[in-house]
Amino acid sequence: MGFFAEFNTWLTTILDDYIHQYTALLAAILEPALVTLGTLYVMIWGFLHIAGRIEEPLLEGLKRIAIFALVFSIGLDLWLYDSVIVDVFYRGPALLAGRLVGAKDFVTVVDTIFKRGDDVATALLAKAGILHGFSFYLAALAVWVWVIITAVYTMFLLTLSRIALSVLLALGPLIIPFFLFSATRRFVEAWFAQLALYGFVAVLASLVAAFMLHLIDAASMQAQAAGGGIQIVHAVRVCIAAGFTFLIMRQVLPLAGGLASGLAISTFGIISSTLAYGRQRTVFGAGQFLKGALMDRESTRWDPLSRRAGFWLSRRVRSQFRRDNAVKK
To answer: Alpha carbon 146 to chain centroid distance?
Structure first.
């Protein structure tokens, strides 16, 4: 079992307990309020009868009794709540995504992507050297960075979906009673729309991850087939595949929002801000590395680590080509 699969198993156990515990607790807390709300519902129904506002009393009465019984059975006694609503919106997307990608669990795809990328990076690292083949160090690092970013972002979407669904399902006993009145049924519709939204996030993220697995498979198979003859071009293909998949994965949230009644969902620019910060730190580190390698003649402990690394590499390279001027007797 891979790292992401173990994390998903641990998280699923916690979220299952969370749903069961807080759903039952919320239903018990809201029981007096729901009884009062049901009494108000019956009183309004009786008033409409007395005022002659109901044209077909028999059909309207059967309809209201069915709604009353359904709302109290699901919202108060949690009748079929776990076996229907939780299964459909929480467990259903994960099972559907797993069947679509042909795996026991959709998280297995993320672990497989990480493993294939690691195989390519390890093969590149085997050909790297400080004096000859230093570019293979950079190629292996690029493969690791892009594959890790894509795998972590995919796992972020799947985790976001499961946690959001857990919180929404725990709110079920509070939302379902709003179905009693026509003016408040929009809250129930919005609740179901949010459940559908995060269900679509899990399914779409898994399908895009399966697409990335096909791309990574094609690139990594060519790289592994080369064996000891692996070249930088193989790393470029893997990085391009991971980069394109990451860009497609960024569109999962808007796609899910469009499918779920056009609801908007945002991560508040966390990924964009993180990438921008990483780009700034990379440019700064590269500049300090070059400054240490090309300009410095000595280094102090106050210098940045990247600058000291450049100075150390420059000193190692110069020591290899320095002639021995000592007089031999």
So the answer is: 16
* 88-127 tens-digit pLDDT: 888 888 888 777 777 667 788 788 878 878 887 887 777 7
The pLDDT assigned to 132 comes to 67
Residues whose CB is less than 8 angstroms from the CB of residue 53 and which lie 6 or more positions away in sequence, other chains included: none
The total domain count for the chain is 2
Which residues does the chain have with pLDDT short of 50?
324-329
Domain around 68: 3-267
Residue 295 neighbours by CB distance under 10 Å: 11
Compute the distance between CA of residue 204 and CA of residue 200 in angstroms, rounded to an integer.
Answer: 6
Q: Are 160 and 202 in contact (CB under 8 A)?
A: no
Token pair belonging to 243: 């980069």
Is 327 inside a domain boundary? no
Q: Can you give the pTM of this predicted structure?
A: 0.72
Same domain for 307 and 222, yes or no, is no
